[in-house]
Design brief:
heterodimer, A: 176 residues, elongated, B: mainly alpha, 62% helix
Chain lengths: 176, 296
């Protein structure tokens, strides 16, 4: 290997080491203090690269409750969407619009990482517009006028994922 | 003494040798990525284009942007339906070239560039660790001799009667190994310090969560004492913490790898997380024999 290539290789090795150490030190709640003024973490780094190397914190919490979503279609335009789905609403099977397992789809529907931002509501409206458009394409004889997204929170049960789903809390998320 | 240390460090971080393991890894990693990403094909319009339910991470009304973010914001603004299909199939095409070993390093770079678009417009939603690992591995492979064995390139070279080099720089192979070991180690340390992992409840409740498979619910119904889940938790943490030295230990690495395959397979079967099988795919890179010929 030429000298220049060796220098390049050593640089990349050190960079990877640096990024791993920084990412680990800032995500373990060890209260590392910044080494340099103006830095938000132990080592100076951009949050994007820190986030990229933040890989280990899978299943960082546990709960005895499940969270899920259902989208319903209404054949009439509702001025105020009901706080809970009604019997005349059509289940739009919102999960079928995502090519993933339920857990992954839930993150895409509820986006826990940005829940406080108004962007979530706009994004959920986009989902509802998409679901409504696709449903109406398949059912031109009875198109829905409005799609409404509800969040469900219910007690986990070994009998199945959706066991007693309707017996928990239902929250109106968005209408579009 | 110092020269011995430098030599040891050099041998560890900048090894040279046979690129065949890297060649095999290129093929299986490429196939894995094609399978992993192909399932999105029917959803490109709905999830990756301006006509669907998009939400790019870098949008001025989500977060204030710094210069780096502004650059990525321009690069990853939602594309039209045609362009979205174009970018997606460019990514898949790059993977096919990479797997076959045709301009594999360029294909790896092309994959990284197109994957970044998809990451910031779509994949970041789930913050999926396996997708981050895939991107890091592929970025390292851009600098690697992964196309020097079991590739169209090496086949053409053999046909022309050009012998392969006696050995190739394998620092990239070692770097992938170090990254994988670092991830396992980080996961182990994280679990020790995380309040969530101080008891078997984290495993028991995960068996009934939104990731769980029917097998997982069946296991939850068996009514095992919580102590069994505590033991499972200790095994997971021990397994992850020992990775960084066991994987490099010639005596025990194969035994550890069997444990690793069982661990990731049970994750896949119980929690439906098949994408994490990219970790066992890298195990072959930890096994490095001596150069025994250059007919690859």
């Amino acid at each position: 290997m030429s000298f220049l290539k060796k220098v390049g290789a050593i640089f990349i090795i050190l960079l990877l080491f640096y990024l791993n150490v920084d990412s680990l030190s800032t995500t373990l709640n060890l209260r590392f203090k910044p080494l340099f003024p103006g830095s938000t973490s132990l080592l100076p780094n951009h949050w994007m690269t820190r986030q990229l190397f933040r890989i280990w914190d899978v299943f960082d919490r546990w709960s005895t409750f499940n969270i899920g979503y259902r989208a319903y279609g209404s054949l009439t335009e509702l001025k105020t969407p009901p706080t809970k789905p009604t019997a005349d609403m059509i289940d739009l099977d919102v999960y079928s619009y995502f090519p993933y397992e339920r857990g992954d789809s839930n993150r895409r529907l509820g986006m826990p990482s940005i829940r406080t931002r108004p962007a979530l509501r706009i994004y959920q409206k986009r989902i509802l517009e998409m679901v409504k458009r696709e449903y109406n394409k398949k059912h031109p004889e009875a198109p829905i006028k409005q799609a409404i997204l509800y969040q469900y929170i219910w007690q986990k049960n070994p009998e199945g994922r959706d066991f007693n789903m309707d017996k928990g809390e239902i929250i109106l998320e968005a209408a579009g | 003494m110092i020269s011995k240390l430098i030599k040891k460090l050099k041998d560890f971080f900048l090894p040279e040798g046979d690129p065949r393991n890297l060649g095999i890894f290129r093929i299986i990693f490429g196939i894995y990525l094609i399978i992993h990403l192909s399932r999105i094909v029917p959803y490109v319009r709905e999830l990756l284009s301006v006509e669907g339910a998009f939400l790019p991470l870098f949008d001025t009304w989500i977060i204030p942007l710094d210069p780096v973010e502004s650059f990525f914001a321009r690069l990853t603004s939602p594309a039209s339906v045609g362009a979205a299909y174009g970018i997606f199939f460019t990514m898949l095409g790059a993977l096919v070239l990479f797997t076959l070993g045709i301009w594999a390093r360029f294909a790896a770079l092309l994959f990284c560039m197109t994957f970044i678009y998809h990451y910031f417009i779509f994949f970041y939603f789930s913050e999926a660790s396996y997708d981050k690992v895939n991107l890091i591995i592929m970025a390292i492979l851009v600098f690697s001799p992964c196309d020097e064995a079991f590739s169209v390139k090496s086949w053409l070279r053999r046909r022309r009667g050009i012998p392969a080099k006696a050995s190739y720089p394998l620092w990239t192979q070692q770097l992938i190994c170090l990254e994988i070991a670092a991830v396992y180690f980080g996961a182990g340390v994280y679990k020790i310090l995380s309040g969530a992992w101080n008891g078997g409840e984290v495993i028991y409740t995960a068996l009934m969560a939104d990731w769980s498979s029917p097998l997982s619910f069946w296991l939850a119904r068996q009514g095992l004492q919580m102590g069994w889940y505590d033991i499972m938790l200790l095994m997971v943490i021990f397994f992850e913490l020992t990775a960084w030295f066991m994987l490099f230990n010639k005596k025990y690495q194969k035994l550890w790898m069997i444990g690793g395959i069982i661990f990731h397979l049970s994750n896949a079967l119980l929690l439906n997380i098949w994408a994490f099988l990219n970790f066992p795919l890298t195990y072959g890179l930890f096994l490095r024999g001596k150069v025994d010929g250059n007919d690859y």
